[in-house]
């Protein structure tokens, strides 16, 4: 059956995208004492096999947490109930590929990557669709500016975007459809809208008639009189209502076009997502997401189009993340106050940027600043350094001497962290609470490794192993788990040196000069060297084995915290 036929009969590609076999339940005995699924970094989470009341249960009868998500449509948090048991269909509006993506884009896709990962952790089979807009006015304008073919330009920036997502440790979606590859579906949907009386043709252009759709404005809570023409469309006197928006634009000289029964042209901005989401998920699916700037006009228009094409169109949850701001002003390309992902990760580690984007609740605005990025970088260094030291210690001990016994106080720390993780993530992805909850297990690891009391604790090795695993597993679900603790620490140090405009040899030379000054009892000089390095974000640490260094928040910024 062709894709167009699938669209006509409203059947999604679920059977193609969801595997038929259920993943096995991971083994993790330390969490058996709680009625929640265990963390698992390498295995798939348990399948959902039974439903009792409103709760979900895994194959062993252990309760899974209920997930509550904020719905922009209802303006409230709602209990998430998938349309198909144990499966989630999610569509997220992707980038318009005409330039490198900025960190406002990064926030959108890190947020929905988190949701994707968390649903998978809970055992849901997820079909995650994220599109590319590769046919658009902005792409055509940029291509003319560069003297490049529009499709070729957009293809290049699609590839750049994918590389950015890999760098930010975002999982690949199930499907990444492009507008240029789905013209039959788009044209077919426009035909349905016309046939159902919701659109009209003017000189080869096709417009949606908003007055024919009484519910227009229900997502954004706007009255029809308050609506304006779409952001990407100039006001056109040929329209019956200024709020009417283009489904199809007639061909102009030098622009790419496709044939249709109403003439050659290309789709308007909004119709693409309605058509592609229907093609892969059907007209009725679970979650549609994007940045808050898409609520109007883009998502409002999507609702109108989809309902006009199919009366059974129904999206359970509309999710939107807040802006990234600079000095409380939205970051955007149109305003020119933006930093690309590449610019940021040139001097800060990608996992520090990901941590920063999770440090505020996804629906709240988050203000980009050097202080915030330095703080995130400092925090992830502490996390990975603690885990690296723990891993190194455990590797030095014979695995066979470990007993399957963990002290009650260690179990309490792990269980509390486990509960915080599941409760907070299930409460509309409350990541700041999860990140804060990591403090207790990390502190416990450091105490066991470095304090006199900790070194004497019974079952110390077993406790360290269990604590390290609990943190590691949460980092995996959050997308913050590096391939190697050692490697990420080296990379974080390299970024810190770059921000400080120093080389490691420069720092080592300063350490030697300071050591010589201390020998000569030139303590003022010694203190000055330490302070000079601290000003640029390099902290010296003295120990019986000598002096080492680590990245830190630069002293002037610390004073602003």
Automatic annotation (TrEMBL):
Alphabetized InterPro entries for the sequence: Cys-tRNA-ligase, Cys-tRNA/MSH_ligase, Rossmann-like_a/b/a_fold, tRNA-synt_1_cat_dom, tRNAsynth_Ia_anticodon-bd
Keywords: Aminoacyl-tRNA synthetase, ATP-binding, Chloroplast, Ligase, Metal-binding, Mitochondrion, Nucleotide-binding, Plastid, Protein biosynthesis, Transit peptide, Zinc
Enzyme class: ligase
One GO biological process term: cysteinyl-tRNA aminoacylation
One Gene Ontology cellular component: chloroplast
Keyword Plastid recorded: yes
Domain tRNA synthetases class I catalytic as annotated: residue spans: 80-376
Transmembrane segments: none
Reported cofactor(s): Zn(2+)
Molecular function as annotated in GO: ATP binding; cysteine-tRNA ligase activity; metal ion binding
Entry EC no(s): 6.1.1.16
Major subcellular site: mitochondrion
Cell compartments where the protein resides: Mitochondrion; Plastid, Chloroplast
Family membership noted in the UniProt record: Belongs to the class-I aminoacyl-tRNA synthetase family.
Designated name of the protein: cysteine--tRNA ligase
Organism of provenance: Glycine soja
């Amino acid at each position: 059956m062709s894709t167009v036929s699938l669209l006509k009969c409203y059947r999604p590609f679920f059977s193609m995208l969801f595997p038929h076999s259920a993943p096995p339940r991971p083994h993790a005995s330390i969490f058996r004492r709680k009625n929640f699924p265990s963390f698992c970094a390498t295995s798939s989470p348990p399948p959902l096999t039974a439903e009792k009341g409103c709760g979900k249960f895994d194959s062993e009868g252990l309760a899974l947490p209920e997930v509550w998500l904020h719905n922009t449509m209802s303006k409230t948090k709602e209990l998430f109930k998938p349309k198909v048991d144990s499966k989630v269909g999610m569509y997220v509006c992707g980038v318009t590929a005409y330039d490198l993506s900025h960190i406002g884009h990064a926030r959108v896709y890190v947020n929905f990557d988190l949701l994707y990962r968390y649903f998978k952790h809970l055992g849901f089979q997820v079909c995650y669709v994220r599109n590319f807009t590769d046919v658009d006015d902005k792409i055509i304008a940029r291509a003319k500016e560069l003297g490049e073919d529009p499709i070729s330009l957009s293809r290049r920036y699609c590839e750049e975007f994918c590389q950015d997502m890999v760098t930010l440790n975002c999982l690949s979606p199930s499907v990444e459809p492009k507008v240029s590859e789905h013209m039959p579906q788009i044209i077919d949907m426009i035909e349905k809208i016309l046939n159902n009386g919701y659109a009209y043709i003017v000189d080869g252009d096709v417009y949606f008639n908003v007055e024919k759709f009484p519910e227009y404005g229900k997502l954004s809570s706007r009255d029809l009189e308050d609506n304006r023409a779409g952001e990407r469309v100039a006001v056109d006197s040929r329209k019956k209502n200024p709020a009417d928006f283009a489904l199809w634009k007639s061909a102009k000289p030098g622009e790419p076009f496709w044939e249709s029964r109403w003439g050659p042209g290309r789709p308007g901005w909004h119709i693409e997502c309605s058509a592609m989401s229907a093609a892969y998920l059907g007209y009725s699916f679970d979650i549609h997401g994007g940045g808050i700037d898409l609520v109007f006009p883009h998502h409002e228009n999507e609702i109108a189009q989809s309902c006009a094409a199919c009366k059974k169109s129904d999206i359970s949850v509309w999710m939107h993340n807040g802006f990234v701001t600079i000095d409380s002003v939205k970051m955007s390309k149109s305003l020119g106050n933006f930093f690309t992902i590449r610019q940021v990760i040139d001097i800060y580690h990608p996992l520090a940027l990901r941590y920063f984007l999770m440090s505020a609740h996804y629906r709240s605005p988050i203000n980009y600043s050097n202080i915030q990025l330095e703080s995130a970088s400092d925090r992830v260094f502490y996390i990975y350094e603690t885990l690296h030291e723990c891993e190194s210690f455990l590797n030095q001990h014979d695995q066979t001497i470990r007993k399957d016994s963990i002290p009650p106080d260690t179990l309490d720390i792990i269980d509390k962290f486990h509960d915080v993780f599941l409760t907070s993530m299930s409460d509309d992805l409350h990541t700041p609470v999860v990140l804060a909850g990591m403090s207790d297990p990390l502190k416990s690891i450091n105490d066991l490794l470095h304090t006199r009391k900790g070194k004497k604790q019974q079952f110390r090795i077993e406790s360290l192993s269990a604590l390290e695993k609990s943190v590691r597993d949460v980092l995996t679900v959050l997308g913050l788990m590096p391939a190697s603790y050692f490697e990420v620490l080296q990379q974080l140090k390299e970024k810190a040196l770059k921000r400080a405009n120093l080389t490691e040899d420069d720092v080592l030379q300063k350490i030697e000069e300071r050591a010589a000054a201390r020998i000569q009892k030139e303590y003022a000089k010694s203190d000055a060297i330490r302070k000079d390095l601290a000003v640029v974000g390099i902290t010296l640490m003295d120990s019986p084995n000598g002096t080492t260094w680590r990245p830190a928040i630069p002293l002037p910024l610390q004073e602003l915290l």
